[in-house]
Amino acid sequence: MDLFVLPREEWECASAAHEERARQWIEPNLQRRSRGEKHPIWDFLFDYYAVRPTHLYRWHPGLGTALADASHGPHAQWRDYIEEADGTVHVDATSFVEHRGKNLAETHALLTAMKGNRPQFDCFGLHEWAMVYRTRTPRHDLPLRLGSAGTDKVVESHTLKCTHFDAYRFFTPPAKPLNLTVLNNDDRPAHDQCACLHAGMDLFKWAFKAGPLIPGSLLLDCLELAMDIRLLDMEASPYDCRPLGYGVVPIETAEGKAEYVAKQRAFAERAEPLRHQLVTFYGRALSTVKL
User: Fold this and answer.
1) What band does 291 get if pLDDT is binned at 50, 70 and 90?
2) H or E, element range at 34
3) HSE-up (13 A, CA, CB side) for residue 102
4) pTM exceeds 0.90
5) What pLDDT is attached to residue 289?
6) CA 192, CA 33: separation in Å to the nearest integer?
């Protein structure tokens, strides 16, 4: 594989810029943890995806880029990097694929399949409503905007059209039979589609799990997209986010539905080039080893 060699001055600047960009998301999370606090919106991605925030400080050049004069730099000490005789250091894709190849191949197949599935813009974020349907134990410590009875009525007056198994599996037992499709983990490539908010948030998970294969800039692009999507996810949910200083997208109304769909379309467009880049990096890595 041909490598683009980044001079030391450039990669040191890129690493410092990455750390500064990541800090805006990491530091508030760490401060809350130190106080034993949880934020129902912003801590979700770190907790749900089991990501250690401090790991996001690590800048990776990504597959295909080598770092000049890096034998004494941090990358030379990290797993799945290799140092050449001339002092350049780069990702060892063969090493990474040897211990993560099965997961890489499954994710690559999922991301590729999603492109061929019809985007769905009429779910209106009802997955969050289905997670509290006919239960008195909501998942988040926030009031329900319409109360329990009002929340149940919204679910019952709509058709649930969730396509994302990781959201569907948190539906309450009474809500699962109301979904248009019975979902399971094995059928994800047949149902996941590019308009889904959770599929958009998952791009951060797939970028993080690919570790050193993914350039730091792409990882943080995926993180920032996921954070923006998460805000819509919660503002359109049955929870009242106004006490936290955020708004409401009232999907139980025609105006709220229109607002949700417009934002959903914008996120889908923003996610597409990120997904394409992930597919490319995954594919290049997998091509180095015969599984």
Assistant:
1) low
2) helix 8-35
3) 1
4) yes
5) 75
6) 33
Inter-residue contact 204 to 226 (CB < 8 Å): yes
* Confidence bin at 54 (pLDDT 50/70/90): confident
SS3 196: coil
Could you tell me whether strands 89-91 and 81-83 are parallel, antiparallel, or unpaired per DSSP bridges? antiparallel
Distance of CA 49 to the CA centre of its chain: 8
Q: Comparing C-alpha atoms, which of 284, 277, 276, 278 is closest to residue 93? A: 284
d(C-alpha 129, C-alpha 132), whole Å: 6
Torsion 188-193-199-205 (CA) sign: positive
| Terminal Cα distance for the chain, rounded | 18
DSSP per-residue string spanning 126-189? HHHHHTSTT-S--SSSS-BTTHHHHHHHHHHTS-B----HHHHTTS-TTTGGGBSS---GGGHH
**Pairing state between β 4-6 and 65-67:** parallel
Provide the β-strand partners of residue 83: 89
Cα-Cα-Cα-Cα dihedral sign, residues 138, 139, 140, 146: negative
**Domain ranges (residues) in the chain:** 4-286
**HEC assignment per residue over 10-24:** HHHHHHHHHHHHHHH
Give Cβ neighbours of residue 242 (< 8 Å, ≥ 6 apart): 248
